[in-house]
Amino acid sequence: MDVHDFPPDLLHAQTAWYAAYRRLALVEPAASPTATRRELLELSGRIAAHPYWAGPAGTPAARMELKEIAQALAGAGQ
């Protein structure tokens, strides 16, 4: 695995995305998931449009590494 130095705001956004996704999966059937879905959409846009991806380090491998790191961090925060 390559080692990338992700900006803290990008790593935080991806970690928050996984946390929101988990909350959405656990929502009660009677509860409205609208706010969490909106949060996911906002975070997705922030992650996809981050300036980091425009640089030379913004490779598909870096995207996968970011996801793996963030998923582990989000899981550790449970």
Total beta strand runs: 0
> What's the alpha carbon Rg, rounded to whole Å?
14 Å
Q: What separation lies between the terminal Cα atoms? A: 25 Å
Percentage of residues in strands: under 5%
> What would the average pLDDT be, to the nearest integer?
91
N-to-C SSE series? HHH
What does this structure look like?
With 78 residues, this protein is an all-alpha fold. It has one domain. Helix content is 64%, strand content 0%. It contains 3 helices and no strands. The longest helix is centred in the N-terminal third of the chain and has 18 residues, at 8-25. It is elongated.
Short recap of the structure:
The chain contains three helices and no strands.
